[in-house]
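Chain A, query sequence.
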Amino acid sequence: MERIGVDDSDDSTPSSVASFMADIAARWPNTSTYHLASNFRPFLRFLGRDDLLEALALARSRREHRIVETLTDGQADDVASACVDGAVAPMDAAITLLALTIGMRACDIIALRVSDLDFRARSMSFVQRKMGNPVTVPMCWFGCCRSRSWATRSPPRT
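Chain A, predicted structure.
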């Protein structure tokens, strides 16, 4: 704040918050305004300056969500082949194949239990963590085989 001419927090105004955010953003161009605001907000709360917090909220600092690139069909085939051919450990292959063929979210994979898998019906039932919807989906043949191999093996000795 000293850089923009404010030496005392009591002298800060809502416009000085906007100037401060612009100054920091210019000096740190690769940092999002959301990140800057999230680090500045606790300090303003500590000062007890609700007017400055409101000014910070007006800075329109939005969190950026980049779109993650998906695998091409060729890349997906290569991953599936590595899992089926045994180049990947059974547990890793089972998780990868379930995600690749069904499109499960990571949080659903983490919560998945062996009791959710029905090897006879070659299906899997679980409740989506994000949406809360019960889901039953078929497992592809090689996903079912790799899952069974992983689920029925003896646990490692420790």
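Helices lie at 14-27, 33-47, 50-57, 73-84, 90-102, 106-111, 141-152. The chain is about 50% helix and 10% strand.
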